[in-house]
Amino acid sequence: MPNYDFDQFFNFPVFRLKNQNYYKVLHTFFINFPMRTKHSHFMKTKSFFLTLSLLSILWISGVAQDDVAAVKAVIEKETFSFQNVDRKNWADSWLQAPYAYWSYSDSTGTSFVQSWNAIDKSFDTYFKTQVSSRQIDVARKGLSIERKWGEIRIYKNGAFVQYIQKVKDGMIDRDETSQIRFLEKVNGKWKIVYVGIIAQYPND
Fold first, then answer.
1. Which of 21, 75, 121, 153 has the highest local Cβ count within 10 Å?
2. How many domains does the chain have?
3. Mind listing the pLDDT tens digit for each residue in 179-192?
């Protein structure tokens, strides 16, 4: 029967880093698990694999929560950078790929741009003419953004996000927009690859 070093197992850095809230409880339970039967080796081996399964679940859950937080942070960064005429960080939020896509629809019609180069070029005038916090500009001082997060789905290195966004500036409440984002994880970093925006109007 193999002789497992359980103390060494529980001190493995992965479990230290990702499961701080569970480490002490699981460690105390496992190391002090009663071994009073003639099948003690079998019981301890079985407990080892049960605990390993539990830690695997906790690890996966922790990674998923980290990805959701990271995805939200990238979306917030892209919007905040655009609002503050910060082209460098706005561009850094995007996956600069030929299949990147941006679209906007309202009562007047639909606009769409495909490929990162075309998206970057389409906003060239905005970033060259707008001044952050200048009252006459789109990016004027006092703007605040509210989001109501909807579905957030993580698929390995891909993510789907849907939310409602509302922009306020202290004087008026702008129309809400229903927004969709697709993101991809490249080299460990989430990047926006698709933006879909649909204007929402209040009911009459």
1. 75
2. 1
3. 999 999 999 999 99
